[in-house]
Design brief:
Layout lengths: L3 E14 L2 E14 L3 E5 L6 H8 L7 E6 L2 E2 L5 H11 E4 L11 H12 L3 H14 L15 H13 L5 E5 L7 H18 L2 E6 L2 H4 L4 E6 L2 E3 L4
Parallel strand pairs: 3-8, 3-9, 6-7, 7-8
Antiparallel strand pairs: 1-2, 1-4, 4-5, 9-10
Helix pairs in contact: 3-4, 3-5, 5-6
């Protein structure tokens, strides 16, 4: 069994709505090994995004254990959470969230500079990643000059720029037409595997989910599938 990049135990999250307690996650357990790509399948509102927010240390209010690269992170303070996100995690969302005033290459350079890379190394890494995603001729274009598929490819390159151990993707092709979504997904999976990162992909698209190494269904706050 490969070394665990992510290990979640008894993860729970509930909300109060109209005086009623709603249990979104009810003791979720999952282990993802190095280089493994896992999908989290479920309809909208099933708790997929809530789980990714927990694992990505983007929201509080959870109980349970979250270990990333062997470090328990669930109870870390804000500065330490920021360090984990910067050094160990990459994020891809349904909407690209690119910086509109910067070029495609600059959007991939910036997170590397924040981590401490030299400008020359960051520029080289960004150009290489974007070229591998078929955007070598679009490096200097701003997001508004790119198609939806191209924007999402830039977002994928940005997520992998700092060589994260784990990429968290929330409906990464949900804003694209089917043909473009298939192409971007194939490129995303190929690049993640080439980079040696693990990935957890939340989606409602069963066809997409079946292309990953393992598939889980989130049902009534619990995961159904092979967790180890």
């Amino acid at each position: 069994m490969s070394e665990a990049v992510l290990e979640v135990r008894n993860l729970a999250r509930s909300f109060e709505q109209g005086g009623v307690k709603i249990e979104v996650l009810r003791g979720v357990d999952i282990r993802i090994g190095k280089g493994e790509i896992v999908s989290l399948l479920g309809p909208s509102g099933s708790g997929k995004s809530t789980m990714l927010q927990a694992v990505g240390l983007l929201e509080g209010g959870f109980s349970g254990s979250i270990s990333i690269d062997g470090e328990e992170v669930a109870s870390l303070e804000n500065d330490a959470r920021t360090r984990i996100r910067r050094d160990h995690l990459g994020f891809v969302y349904q909407f690209h969230h690119l910086l509109p005033d910067f070029s495609a290459k600059e959007n991939v350079v910036i997170p590397q500079l924040i981590k401490g890379a030299t400008p020359a190394a960051a520029d080289k890494r960004a150009a290489e990643l974007l070229a591998r995603l078929g955007l070598g001729h679009r490096l200097d274009h701003r997001p508004s000059q790119l198609s939806g598929g191209e924007q999402q490819r830039v977002a994928v390159a940005r997520a992998l720029a700092n060589q994260p151990s784990l990429v968290l993707a929330d409906e990464p092709t949900g804003n694209l037409d089917e043909a473009t979504a298939d192409l971007v997904l194939a490129e995303f999976l190929t690049l993640v595997r080439e980079e040696g990162s693990a990935a957890l992909i939340a989606t409602h698209n069963e066809r997409l989910a079946k292309k990953t190494d393992r598939l889980f269904r989130l049902h009534e706050g619990l995961l159904e599938g092979n967790k180890t």
